[in-house]
Amino acid sequence: MSDVVEKTLTALPSLLSLDSHPGSAKLSSTSKLGNLIRGITELTSKHEEEKLIQHELLAIKEQVSSPNTTMRQMKELMVRSIYCEMLGYEASFSYIHAIKLAQQGTVLEKRVGYLAVSLFLNESHELLLLLVNTVLKDLQSTNLIEVCMALTVVSQMFPKDMIPAILPLVEEKLNHPKEIIRRKAVLALYKFYLIAPNQVQHIHNKFRKALCDKDPGVMTASLHIYLQMIQENPDAYKDLTPSFVTILKQVVGGKLPMDFNYHTVPAPWLQIQLLRILALLGKNDQSTSEVMYEVLDESLRRAEMNHNITYAILYECVKCIYTIHPKSDLLEKAAKCIGNFVLSPKINLKYLGLKALTYVVQQDPKLALQHQMTIIECLDHPDLIIKRETLELLFRITNAQNVTVIVEKMLEFLCISEDDHTTIDLVGKVAELAEKYAPDNEWFIETMNTVFSLGGDMMQPDIPNSFLKLLSEGFDSVEEDRKLKLFAVNSYVPLLRGEPGKLPQRFLQVISWVLGEYSHLREDLEPAEVLSLLAKLLDMKNSSSETKSWVLMAMTKLCKGGTDASVTQEVSETYSSSLDTVLRQRAHELQYLSQDPELRARVLPRGANPETLEVDSSLSFLDRFVSEALAAGAAPYKPPHQRQEELDQSKALSLEPYGLSLPISMSSCSITDRQSPTLLSMSSGLSGDSADLSHKGGSSALKLDGVKRVWGREGYLAQREPVEEAAQVEVPSPIQSPGRQGEGDSLHSQTPTQTPTPEPEQEKQQLASSLFVGLASQSSVSLMGKSEPTPQRFRRKAKGQGPGSSFNASEQISSSLISPPSAVDNLLCNNLLDSNNASELAEQTSQLSQRLTTANGTCHTEAELTEPDTKGCNPALRRDNCVVAADPGPHDDPGRLTEVCLDSYLPAELSGLSHSEIAPLCANQSLNLSACHVQKEDSLILVVFIINSSESAIQQMLLQVDSEELEVSCLCDSPAGEMTSHSVAVGQYSLTVKRPAVHVEVVGTVSYQLPAGTSQSLQFSYKVPLTSFIRPFVVSTEEYGTMWLSFSHDTKQNLTLINDNQEPLTATLNALKKKLQLHVVEVIGMEGIVACRLLQDLPCLMHCRVNAGWLAVWLRSPVPDLPDCLIYHCQRALQSL
Amino acid sequence: MQFMLLFSRQGKLRLQKWYVPLSDKERKKISRDLVQTILARKPKMCSFLEWRDLKIVYKRYASLYFCCAVEDQDNELITLEIIHRYVELLDKYFGSVCELDIIFNFEKAYFILDEFLLGGEAQETSKKNVLKAIEQADLLQEVHSVLLQFSAL
């Protein structure tokens, strides 16, 4: 039955809208595009396809340029051109026609025209300029769809120089009554901000307005801009933190319209955006971070459904928590969360878990220890991506003790990786680790050899540079120095004797330099042999000329005349006529210096300290020449960026005619903006420029920043001992030393001492202990980026000073806000709650109460019915004292009231019914509050227990309970006021749902006076799952059918089926019935219908069908949010099985 | 987001949207590389890839692969859900969508994408609102063609 209903219902909208959905290929099959597509699919070879498309393109070309082609035909032609371009064939002739179509077509043709433009052209394409006038016209159109199209294309691409022409129009759209226009305008401004931030500086206050827009969509769009701006300058936006927190709180609390839900999670995109913003704001800022702790905790707590989307939010939460100023209990929860990711069987989650771990392990290396076995498993994962991420994690926890194992793993991966980008990255990391933590000479040189041969010629040039620098500078210990160099020489000679043709050029360059400088250290090696080995490199076909010049230089250093003369003579003769000028110069140098040993000794002294060389990088010796040239009328030097700037500027000015229609103030303003940086750099004459040069020179040659140098004054000997310890690998590794508590618990359970384990397991555990050695001992952990007292010789200039000037302006603007933050807050609160407005509420309540009178006239409801309207509008009116002061009874130890005791205080009429666990709410020195809820057949009762735990009586006690989502009515009209010491008072409230939410919350306050006369209050909140309000709803199949058609709110989702041996549908429905108190109306074959009601009488119908291993569920109800909430609980119920 | 690609199991491109300015040649190279890499991956493997300095997030729906490139600091899971929401939108619009729908009506698929993502950022995540915007424009088409038929009479 319901299948038919479903079909008709889905067909209905399309019937109404004149069949606007062309059922797949139905309509197009007769069109030319259809023919083309089918033509292509029938072809068998690439060649045939090419022929067909070329033919097609010719036909299109002919038609588009024909004057008789109507815009309607043009639209069709453009679609075909797009298709051809997508297949990879160029149709550039149609670009101009796409622009024409956007210009001249009617709305629909325009739509295709704009689409074609956005697909064909990119931001820098010159034809885009021709679109400016069209956009300008459409932005002024009265047709909303045209305005939308113009804004859409503008947000995707727009020539930077033309922004001033349309900016006022786009700005104007921020006040448009339609939210879709406002939203698109905000995104267009976001785009402008990205490509030309100074153009939109003056409208920062309008961004604030967008942030406070009453439409959540517009507000969300504005967050893109804020994320960007805050990324650049977090300090300027700290004042917005409370607003962002408030928004997030409301989103998390489900205050947005249900439209924004995604799989029952409220606005996840918005949540993630906000979390990212908060992370930026709270970074290194304790007071700002404190504002957000609560909402972060709330987010963690709410995101509990087992769905990708909640994991996405959790991941962002964890990142935020670890970015902002730390709070221990949040960190603990976040760590637990990461654990769930890492241990998940789902590979995507595992990956993210590793990523999160990599992110946090810098702050908390213990976390890596907790998951060591998982990490080891991931290291052998068949998916390279997982493996790669694991190595990234290991990179972060490397220390002097585990470096050998980790580097070995990285090199293993390098051997199988085929991706260049990964290779470059990993090689850099290995080199960094090797320099930082190398345990000894041999290991260092061998590792670097592997780096050079694997990294090939792709690796960053600073790796060989810093390696050579390290080698040449050496240490204070001459002996160590010599050993290292000698070892390098020893390892290179056999390489050259072998097959040097296979080695990358960079490596050959390193080898020739080292041999040139240090081969004399090896006494048994004749220079002649080295020379001939080097000469062999020159003869190799694949040697680059750069390598050759390195080789020639090495030979220059080595040649001593005499027997070597013949080799050098031959070589220098060959290359002195080379076409490569550098090679020719080197050859001549070789020739002269080999013949003049005295000169050679002066030019190339052996063993000289390279640092004694001083290079005048400011080129001051040229100053006289320059000043003479200037005096003679030469133009002053301009750095490249300034030249470019001026070029852009002149280009912008020449395009003035397009800007004619814009207000003059606008264009002039933007031009002055543009000029300011030029003016600044104008003064950078000779001196400024040379300073720049010297800085550059320093940083390009020696990129050792951030690299800990273990090769310091003491050498690396000090670190040998721990390494040897680690090499033994076995049980008494530092991890297990008993002196360390705290982190010990989780460790001991995993350390390999326990029962005899199978072989592979043991291997893994051995690996684990060698990988994670030294992590637990704080002293030896060397956290990257953390304060390391290593002296760095070359410090990079502090960044961020330069662009600072541009931020000043934005700061000024933000300080001259139109609305102070508190107003922002208010606006947000009011607007975001619009689904909750008063009229709707009152209506719902009166509806509800009418039902109540007809259905069941129990005493407590009647009390309310007298004034249903006042209740809806002003709940404060009926907050009477409604607390039952129960007899305190004989109590020996009232301070330790247990649940059992409280049980006995349950009112007699409720004691037989099932109630939830009595949960403590809050407490202070004098009062202790607990609560539970009791499920009656037709109502839900909240029972609040107030315990006076103090030694004195309290007076004027008043308990007030209220809720946003619930109707709260007091059940027993009993006077409170005074409570004697150690007595218990009980308040009873009947709850009904006025607005369904996944969890509903009751908030309350107890105010009272101490005998001393000071008045105090205590606040609490109590959460009730919506399921407590669900009752079975007994209907017949026919009744169900009529009701189904009349309900307007619905939702659909697939749920997991329970697969035990009996029939899965029945099993699942029974489980739901048991958990959620649903009523199964009927089961027919693969379909089942279920009904329930939300107290008092709000029905919700559920239609279930088994489909491809899933239970397709369709829920309908007259209450707006009920289906969504219910589906959430169904999901939870099935998961918890 | 930097770009989005849709391609079939045979490696045929079905949709491409670039949010960063790239030359034609680069676009072709990127899509060729990516299609190859992704098609070579096994079904149980991770949906995320590191590729150059970008993060690739992809998912297969029936015979179609949806693939997005995001920056490294972006949230991969939410990108996966962006893909899913786009598929939901297509599904709702076409009524249980299949590859043929997208081949023959690719311009419609682009329109939907433009309403959903704008300039590489999620513009409107409410399914209802996106489809409302599309249907309004579509309705215009119908009115337009009806008017044309009248004028032809």
Automatic annotation (TrEMBL), chain A:
<dbReference type="GO" id="GO:0016192">
    <property type="term" value="P:vesicle-mediated transport"/>
</dbReference>
<dbReference type="InterPro" id="IPR016024">
    <property type="entry name" value="ARM-type_fold"/>
</dbReference>
<dbReference type="InterPro" id="IPR002553">
    <property type="entry name" value="Clathrin/coatomer_adapt-like_N"/>
</dbReference>
<dbReference type="InterPro" id="IPR017109">
    <property type="entry name" value="AP4_complex_esu"/>
</dbReference>
<feature type="domain" description="AP-4 complex subunit epsilon-1 C-terminal">
    <location>
        <begin position="1031"/>
        <end position="1135"/>
    </location>
</feature>
<feature type="region of interest" description="Disordered">
    <location>
        <begin position="722"/>
        <end position="768"/>
    </location>
</feature>
<comment type="subunit">
    <text>Adaptor protein complex 4 (AP-4) is a heterotetramer composed of two large adaptins, a medium adaptin and a small adaptin.</text>
</comment>
<dbReference type="Pfam" id="PF01602">
    <property type="entry name" value="Adaptin_N"/>
</dbReference>
<comment type="function">
    <text>Subunit of novel type of clathrin- or non-clathrin-associated protein coat involved in targeting proteins from the trans-Golgi network (TGN) to the endosomal-lysosomal system.</text>
</comment>
<keyword id="KW-0472">Membrane</keyword>
<dbReference type="InterPro" id="IPR028269">
    <property type="entry name" value="AP4E1_C"/>
</dbReference>
<dbReference type="Pfam" id="PF14807">
    <property type="entry name" value="AP4E_app_platf"/>
</dbReference>
<keyword id="KW-0653">Protein transport</keyword>
<keyword id="KW-0333">Golgi apparatus</keyword>
<keyword id="KW-0813">Transport</keyword>
<dbReference type="InterPro" id="IPR050840">
    <property type="entry name" value="Adaptor_Complx_Large_Subunit"/>
</dbReference>
<dbReference type="GO" id="GO:0030124">
    <property type="term" value="C:AP-4 adaptor complex"/>
</dbReference>
<dbReference type="GO" id="GO:0006886">
    <property type="term" value="P:intracellular protein transport"/>
</dbReference>
<dbReference type="GO" id="GO:0012505">
    <property type="term" value="C:endomembrane system"/>
</dbReference>
<feature type="region of interest" description="Disordered">
    <location>
        <begin position="780"/>
        <end position="814"/>
    </location>
</feature>
<dbReference type="InterPro" id="IPR011989">
    <property type="entry name" value="ARM-like"/>
</dbReference>
<protein>
    <recommendedName>
        <fullName>AP-4 complex subunit epsilon</fullName>
    </recommendedName>
</protein>
Automatic annotation (TrEMBL), chain B:
<dbReference type="InterPro" id="IPR000804">
    <property type="entry name" value="Clathrin_sm-chain_CS"/>
</dbReference>
<comment type="similarity">
    <text>Belongs to the adaptor complexes small subunit family.</text>
</comment>
<keyword id="KW-0333">Golgi apparatus</keyword>
<dbReference type="GO" id="GO:0005905">
    <property type="term" value="C:clathrin-coated pit"/>
</dbReference>
<comment type="subunit">
    <text>Adaptor protein complex 1 (AP-1) is a heterotetramer composed of two large adaptins (gamma-type subunit AP1G1 and beta-type subunit AP1B1), a medium adaptin (mu-type subunit AP1M1 or AP1M2) and a small adaptin (sigma-type subunit AP1S1 or AP1S2 or AP1S3). Binds to MUC1.</text>
</comment>
<dbReference type="InterPro" id="IPR044733">
    <property type="entry name" value="AP1_sigma"/>
</dbReference>
<protein>
    <recommendedName>
        <fullName>AP complex subunit sigma</fullName>
    </recommendedName>
</protein>
<dbReference type="InterPro" id="IPR011012">
    <property type="entry name" value="Longin-like_dom_sf"/>
</dbReference>
<keyword id="KW-0472">Membrane</keyword>
<dbReference type="GO" id="GO:0035615">
    <property type="term" value="F:clathrin adaptor activity"/>
</dbReference>
<feature type="domain" description="AP complex mu/sigma subunit">
    <location>
        <begin position="1"/>
        <end position="140"/>
    </location>
</feature>
<dbReference type="GO" id="GO:0030121">
    <property type="term" value="C:AP-1 adaptor complex"/>
</dbReference>
<keyword id="KW-0168">Coated pit</keyword>
<keyword id="KW-0653">Protein transport</keyword>
<dbReference type="InterPro" id="IPR022775">
    <property type="entry name" value="AP_mu_sigma_su"/>
</dbReference>
<keyword id="KW-0813">Transport</keyword>
<keyword id="KW-0968">Cytoplasmic vesicle</keyword>
<dbReference type="GO" id="GO:0006886">
    <property type="term" value="P:intracellular protein transport"/>
</dbReference>
<comment type="function">
    <text>Subunit of clathrin-associated adaptor protein complex 1 that plays a role in protein sorting in the late-Golgi/trans-Golgi network (TGN) and/or endosomes. The AP complexes mediate both the recruitment of clathrin to membranes and the recognition of sorting signals within the cytosolic tails of transmembrane cargo molecules.</text>
</comment>
<dbReference type="Pfam" id="PF01217">
    <property type="entry name" value="Clat_adaptor_s"/>
</dbReference>
<dbReference type="InterPro" id="IPR016635">
    <property type="entry name" value="AP_complex_ssu"/>
</dbReference>
